Amino acid sequence: MKSLNNIVEDIYRNIQPLCEGESLGLTEEDIDKFGEDMKNVLRNWSNPTARDSNFTLRMSNVGKPSRQLWYDSNSSNDSSVNPSTMVKFLYGHILEEVVLVLARLSGHEVSDEQKEVTVNGIKGHIDCKIDGEVVDVKTASAFAFKKFKYGGLPEDDPFGYIAQLSGYEQAEGSSEGGFLAINKETGELAFFAPDEFDKVDTHDRINYLREALQSKKPPRKCYSDVAEGTKGNMKLSRGCSYCPHKFTCHADANDGNGLRGFRYAKGITYFTKVVKEPNVEEVL
Questions:
Q1: DSSP letter at 224?
Q2: What is d(CA 281, CA 284) in angstroms, rounded to the nearest whole number?
């Protein structure tokens, strides 16, 4: 019987004949199944469901930082998405199907794709089960992929992936699932199964959020500021830098003057405290 912990090695072993110029011997049924899956990806991508302008708790967001969700809930919600993001969604869905067909061809059982589950009144859809365990398939940049390959996700999980997986496992009564990730730049695969103590009681988390989001004051800040250099300057953590609410959330920065942004070669750095002026262009 196949072990989920060996899925990457099994996939690589199954593909090895290609590296030696040999055929994988796929059946017409295998090829047709993959073709139908690709058709469904394109069909679903090109016919999106209507976007709700009102904030709602979903299984995909219950693990995000509480303060960020508070601002999501209490701010006007611009749900527009630009065309390049839609392209990113498309190739993300395609790569997910590529990963699943590789899992099937390596002898692992893939089932329950996009099955709807409910946790404490919140609905969500699992990516799939592999060998009877809940698996979330992730397409990742080279930087993000390291968190799955080397197990750093519990310490750096701004999108709440572990809470989402925990909820799905609670709904399905399983506990040995994890994340099957593909590095979209190199094609490398990794499987990461969080330890039980890193998982979240999603039922309790939802109860907490329902109360917190009704409060007139936001929860405490998600991340602490980070020192920039040795002169006393402080900047936003990486998790805050990409948040759409950073300017409102950090309106008290720089003695109440708000964030200050400076353009470095690697991009804009947002300062919460400036003791010594950076020797680069200020853009905010």
A1: -
A2: 9
Helical (H) or strand (E) element with 66:
helix 66-74
What is the CB neighbour count within 10 angstroms for residue 124?
19
The helix/strand/coil state of 61 is coil
Q: How is residue 156 written in tokens?
A: 């750096």
CA neighbours closer than 13 Å in the CB half-sphere of residue 184:
17
Read off the tokens for 246: 């950073």
As averages over each run of 10 residues, the pLDDT of the chain (284 residues) reads 92 97 96 96 91 83 96 78 92 96 97 96 96 97 96 94 97 97 97 97 96 96 95 95 94 97 95 96 91
Domains of the chain: 4-209 (3.90.320), 226-282 (no CATH)
How far is it, in rounded angstroms, from Cα 99 to Cα 105?
A: 10
Q: 79 is written with which tokens?
A: 């749900």
Cα(251)–Cα(57) distance, rounded to whole angstroms?
26
